[in-house]
Design goal:
A two-stranded antiparallel ribbon has the order 1-2. Helix 1 packs across helix 6 and helix 2 (63-89) packs across helix 6 (126-145). By secondary structure, the chain is mainly alpha-helical. The chain has helices at residues 2-44, 63-89, 93-97, 102-111, 114-122, 126-145, 179-191; strands at 46-50, 56-60.
Length: 196
């Protein structure tokens, strides 16, 4: 009798998992369809012309239109590089590339905290929010228009994510933080990982 009850529980859990997974997938698709009309309106304000060397020249009615067009063109050129850059900048590279990147992700999280980035987005001036919204919309529109492109992890870009990738000479030099030292000196003793 005990095993029958256990099997009924397993069946229920399996069916529940399938249902909620399907619900999540269809909700994501409904969300994309709902946003598609807005993305189409944004795209109508943008002109992308490629020259003889395939370099995109983008124009729009507003700065946000230009951001939408530039990131769309960049995604068309190399979406996977964009996604990899943001996976790295958010400390989520291990989700795509495996366990070997966990310490790189941890190091990145010492610099970039997604919760802080969300707060910075919310408290940004409206003109800056418009640019970040256009950035996310351009990437999400690209994914919507190119369903054959399969993101490794990020299936929906959010405006705050733009704040996480700030390549340049300003700020700390994250590469100076030794990954091996993080693994050896901090995590091994703090987390009591066998073998450290």
């Amino acid at each position: 009798m005990k095993s029958r009850h256990f099997c009924d529980s397993c069946t229920f859990l399996w069916l529940s998992t399938c249902f909620f997974t399907a619900l999540g997938v269809s909700c994501a698709r409904v969300d994309a369809l709902k946003n598609a009309a807005a993305w189409e309106r944004e795209a109508q304000n943008v002109t992308i012309v490629r020259d003889d060397w395939a370099i995109p020249h983008v124009s729009g009615k507003t700065a946000a239109d230009a951001v939408f067009g530039v990131i769309y063109a960049q995604a068309k050129d190399d979406f996977h590089r964009i996604e990899t850059n943001y996976l790295n900048s958010m400390g989520r590279l291990a989700e795509a590339e495996g366990e070997a990147e966990i310490y790189r992700d941890l190091r990145m999280k010492l610099f970039i905290n997604p919760a802080e980035m969300k707060t910075k987005y919310e408290t940004s001036p409206e003109w800056l929010k418009a640019l970040m919204n256009a950035w996310a919309d351009g990437l999400n529109y690209y994914l919507y228009k190119h369903p054959q492109v399969k993101p490794r992890v990020i299936t929906r870009f959010e405006p705050w994510m733009a704040l996480t990738f700030t390549e340049g000479s300003i700020g700390g030099d994250i590469e100076r933080i030794n990954l091996e030292r993080i693994r050896r000196d901090h995590l091994g003793s703090v987390l009591h990982i066998p073998g450290f």
